[in-house]
Give the backbone structure.
Amino acid sequence: MILPIVAYGDPVLKQKAKEITAEYPKLKELVENMHETMYGAYGLGIAAPQIGLAIRLFVVDASPFAEDKELDEEEREYLNNFKHTFINPVILEETGEEWAFNEGCLSIPDVREDVFRKPNVKIEYYDLDFKKQTMELDGIAARIVQHEYDHIEGILFTDKLSALKKRLIKSKLTNISKGKVGIDYRMRFPNQKKKR
């Protein structure tokens, strides 16, 4: 089921999310819905706060990057198969020299900016079977995971921008929070009431 994506300005996007247990109700169904929601909005990842749940869970699928002709065959193959569910993740380390990459966010449509992040990440998490995993990532895969991890920490990519960049996009962000944005996927705006 495709769920509405929470728009910029909703307090849930600024909360630090809570850990869950293997007994979390309908977890597999929730993860399926998150994947469906992400694909329906042409996203590469989506975190639980983006669907209104302040829990430490996100899903990613880097396969759209596998179409990049500038990557070598091995990188394309890796990204094409980079589809994961991260439950209660903890970034253990981020290393390397920061690099800029143009990022966007399903909760902040029509806003894209260069964000600096470290290229290498080591992350510990539970998979969908609640088995503990450790993964070392670099490049695009690391960046996608860092972006989604920020969501469960209550951080948006716009928080990482310079004061000048923030001023330049302020009116766009205000419009998004008021629902004044053209999008082709379901969104829930801060002034809308939750449907029960």
Notes: The mean pLDDT is 94. Strands lie at 5-6, 45-47, 57-61, 83-95, 99-105, 108-117, 120-126, 132-138, 187-188. The first strand starts at residue 5 and ends at 6.
